[in-house]
Design a protein that fits this description.
single chain, 233 residues, mainly beta, six-stranded antiparallel sheet, 3 helices, 11% helix
Amino acid sequence: MGYLNIYFNDELKSKHEVKSLITRIGRNQDNDVVIDNTGVSGNHAEIIKNGDKYTIHDLRSKNGVYVNGERISEAELSYGDEISIFKHKLRFIAVDLPVSVEKTDSRTSNEKSNSTQSATVEVDVSRLESLIKDKEASNASLEAASGAMAGRTFRLSKTRFAIGKSSDCDIQIGGWFAPKVAAKIVRQSDGYYLVPEKRGKTRHNGSTVKARVKLKHGDDIEIRGTKFRFFNR
């Protein structure tokens, strides 16, 4: 399990357990991790949990996201990594340690990385089935069944696939009141999940969904009036 310790001016401000499929970070109060600072975008970043892997994504924030001093658009996190969001530092750790214990490990990220690389690698055979499923899931796609996009096929080759009005969404849908992101499809080791956003008006096999749902081959998805079919051969 991962945890985020949030620091400002080297002072610990809060702690958060990263246990959800998507952990949202930003200034808006509906985020999972709220950072109340004008230099932080309303929806600044999000961390996607995929089994025991965590990936952080910059949501086109104004001031960017940095991992261990390097600006990123997307990066896989390792325990001990330091995330910089404007003037705040977010330390990603494996266990919720007391601050005094956490500070005793003063090695740099590079030192930790070198130490990890020099260690003997032990293959966890129990995860092979999960890795195979992860590879198979790369064949998944969405086919638009209505509207101007009817007949178009979108391959779900990324960890996070966004659908909405924003110009940086993977599939753009219109509508006067359409939100920037209406829904997301998130890839995990056991397949794909449909994650509706607020005001997304998302339906799965004819039923309105308000929480994430695992997708199966042939499922029908409707997002703000545009219909899609999910394929995973």
